[in-house]
Design brief:
By secondary structure, the protein is an all-alpha fold. The chain is built from 3 helices and no strands. The chain has one domain.
């Protein structure tokens, strides 16, 4: 099943994801001079954001196979960012 990103709920999810990603990157940049650095901070923050998105998806009883984007898609996106950041550090 293909996801549609042109409908209003999906657009809202994309804006929410972009805003949350900007906040995570800003917080990870603040960790640049620490011993663990930017990459590890980004990986940890992204995985925690993924977990919080999963909790919200379960609490709102969202289905992972709907046509519109939802918290499950957001969780997968953050998890992918966290895994890639972990591999690169």
């Amino acid at each position: 099943m293909l996801r549609t990103i042109s409908d209003p709920p999906s657009g809202y999810v994309l804006k929410r994801f972009a805003t949350e990603l900007a906040i995570i990157i800003t917080c990870a940049l603040a960790q640049l001079r620490t011993p663990w650095g930017f990459g590890r901070a980004l990986a940890i923050l992204a995985v925690f954001s993924s977990l919080s998105s999963m909790v919200l998806a379960v609490s709102y009883r969202e289905h992972p196979t709907t046509r519109a984007l939802n918290y499950w898609d957001e969780a997968v996106g953050f998890l992918a960012i966290g895994i890639v950041a972990h591999w690169l550090t």
